[in-house]
Amino acid sequence: MTDRKEIATTPFDGQKPGTSGLRKKVKVFQQPHYLENFVQAIFDTQSVLNNGCLVVGGDGRFYNREAIQIILRIAAANGVATALVGRGGILSTPAVSCVIRKYHAQGGIVLSASHNPGGADEDFGIKFNVASGGPAPEIVTDDIFVRTRSIDRYFTIAAAPLDLDLLGEYQLGDMKVQVIDSVADYAELMASLFNFDAIRQLFESGAFRMRFDAMHAVTGPYAVEILENILGAEPGTVINGIPLEDFGGGHPDPNLVHAHELVALAHGSDGVDFAAASDGDGDRNMILGNDFFVTPSDSLAVLAANAHLVPGYHQGIAGIARSMPTSQAADRVAAALGVDCYETPTGWKFFGNLLDAGRITLCGEESFGTGSHHVREKDGLWAVLFWLNLLAIKRQSVGAIVREHWQRFGRNYYTRHDYEAINSTAADGLMHHLHTLLPTLPQRVFGNYTVAYADDFCYVDPIDASMSTGQGIRIGFTDGSRIVFRLSGTGTEGATLRIYIEQYEPDATRHERPVQDALQPLITIARELAQIEARTERTAPTVIT
Ligand code: G6P
Ligand code: ZN
């Protein structure tokens, strides 16, 4: 093989991929051989890539370009036949999934640390996706990890960096590299799912204004092309649309705290009708109407109830899945539609088997992730276009659509209280304490609430029968209310305790209460049961969503 070099190396500790791949500080990745070892471990374990096609792209954060050049040289030295790379090294996470599926690639490498800040002193990440377009299942990531522990060499080739800013075909050793338009394939997929004509008419009507906050992250080019160029939204609809290596110093996480600029734009009589945001790598979404925040749990339920209005889903949906802590609003829609609703552990990967088997069409999580069978990642812009399609057909405000939904199905009041960066030992002690309480809880009465069941959530995958235990403590009450406790799997400092609280309210005259007021009795029960103050020394959560 042309110019192939074998480089001796030694293993690094801690190259175990987490929920969303290997995430570390940029400085860790910049150590000599660190990235190379991990990438070689992918090729050493994934023989399908030999002579195959590999998709490579990232969210544009600091170190994205250098990492791609390194990966391409290693891929060329390991017998990959073709690499498809997004122009400028840019591909959103759902776009990688779309491109893998469209071109029947054998896998993909996504460079991102999602919503974590970017920059020389911030985070970087690498994730391997398989031929279905989804994140590698644990059995694959375990193999890769095992390989990183014994790796003693990697292969690369001597070659100058490629110009990734120019579309076209290049030769790198024996490998063909195609620099592809980052947006085109994804935009074409979106056009096949949604009623673009109706959305265009909505924008042309002049009676509707929206803002999309790309947060200086990867969705900028996608949103400008699709919303402004293809759908005719007024120029300036997309704000913070230029991807920057440090995301402009911001925190590219679409929630009410980090997307505050957008929240202000959707406020009051001068405010826009619809506002949305996505995260660093384009898989999360936040949906706002004028002075109206749609919780991700409600968003999933509304999309499911109205899917028949959208061309890609007009024949109906096969089923819905939601992560366990996500509110049960979607369950009520599934029941009304007569389709199954699956409750999975937190983490998008748990939807993969259900999607592949055709059991579900839509899925979502309370953590601002929504998606469908069109790709195998959650998809931020997809959710925004789904909402636009509904707004264009219904010609109602976001708030009116959600209120009507509550009238029909009842409202699942919902909140999440996070206690971030608490002492890990204290957090483990708190969860242990809750475990010991579990058998004593059923039938116990707390004020107006009677416990119906209390357990530690365990999931048996209906397709491959794999079992995931210890996925969070659930306390369910006879009226359908729930309190869920779990420790975050993505935090970086100490432990983060998440408490999810939900109460079902069928009475439409009681749908306009402030969420924290409506849930106050359950919030108090949760704090007392878990002995939060005594165990964490915190009197209040750090974040409420
Ligand atoms: C990532 C995953 C999501 C998951 C979320 C949960 O964003 O992609 O699928 O819902 O993490 O994070 P947590 O911190 O609650 O474990
Ligand atoms: Zn993300």
Report on the structure:
The chain has 545 residues and is of the alpha/beta class. It has three domains: 4-182, 3-Layer(aba) Sandwich (Alpha-D-Glucose-1,6-Bisphosphate, Chain A, domain 3), CATH 3.40.120; 186-409, Alpha-D-Glucose-1,6-Bisphosphate, Chain A, domain 3 (3-Layer(aba) Sandwich), CATH 3.40.120; 411-544, Alpha-D-phosphohexomutase, C-terminal domain (TATA-Binding Protein). The chain is 32% helix and 26% strand. It contains 18 helices and 27 strands. The strands form six sheets. Strands 2-6-5-3-4-9-8 form a seven-stranded mixed sheet, with helices on both faces. A seven-stranded antiparallel sheet has the order 20-21-24-25-26-19-27. Helix 2 packs across helix 3, helix 2 (34-45) packs across helix 5 and helix 10 (296-306) packs parallel to helix 11 (329-337). The longest helix is centred in the last third of the chain and has 15 residues, at 380-394. The radius of gyration is 23 Å and the shape is globular. The model has no long low-confidence stretch (mean pLDDT 96). It binds 6-O-phosphono-alpha-D-glucopyranose (G6P) and zinc ion. Zinc ion (ZN) binds next to loops. GO terms for molecular function: magnesium ion binding; phosphoglucomutase activity. InterPro entries: A-D-PHexomutase_a/b/a-I, A-D-PHexomutase_a/b/a-I/II/III, A-D-PHexomutase_a/b/a-II, A-D-PHexomutase_a/b/a-III, A-D-PHexomutase_C_sf, A-D-PHexomutase_CS, Alpha-D-phosphohexomutase_SF, PGM.
